[in-house]
Amino acid sequence: xxxxxxxxxxxxxxxxxxxxxxxxxxxxxxxxxxxxxxxxxxxxxxxxxxxxxxxxxxxxxxxxxxxxxxxxxxxxxxxxxxxxxxxxxxxxxxxxxxxxxxxxxxxxxxxxxxxxxxxxxxxxx
Length: 125
Ligand SMILES: CC(C)(COP(=O)(O)OP(=O)(O)OC[C@H]1O[C@@H](n2cnc3c(N)ncnc32)[C@H](O)[C@@H]1OP(=O)(O)O)[C@@H](O)C(=O)NCCC(=O)NCCS
Description:
- Helix content is 19%, strand content 38%.
- The chain is an alpha+beta fold.
- Coenzyme A binds at residues 42-44, 49-55, 77, 81-84, 86-87, 90.
């Protein structure tokens, strides 16, 4: 894990040889009291896909965000990106909104949301 300012973190997945094969970045989204996180730059090397690396990178971000007391993770992906959509759904995200024509005519962006477990019985805001 690489860290920057609080909540701005990234993970690199590596083979036992040390070769990097995956990456994910996490950052706060919006004002701190929203307690939302944004997942981006998720990528796994073509030769290393379908081995659960993306799922494990997401799990790292989810654990960290929950430890920070965040309520939700958000991520965006193109509606045509089947692998990405399935990976997020497999990891407990759901499609919350579609930004139609976001990147041009017919190219929609899907906002994916993952509610995070809340500890301590606090009231969600
Ligand atoms: C999306 C991406 C990160 C997935 O990484 P990955 O390590 O291959 O994903 P995992 O092996 O952890 O897969 C987890 C689940 O996601 C789904 N999934 C992953 N790739 C899939 C594909 N090509 N087609 C359908 N479902 C897929 C499956 O449900 C899978 O579980 P399963 O293998 O047990 O069936 C990878 O395909 C990638 O780097 N794509 C290019 C970059 C990209 O599009 N990034 C996302 C931008 S938001």
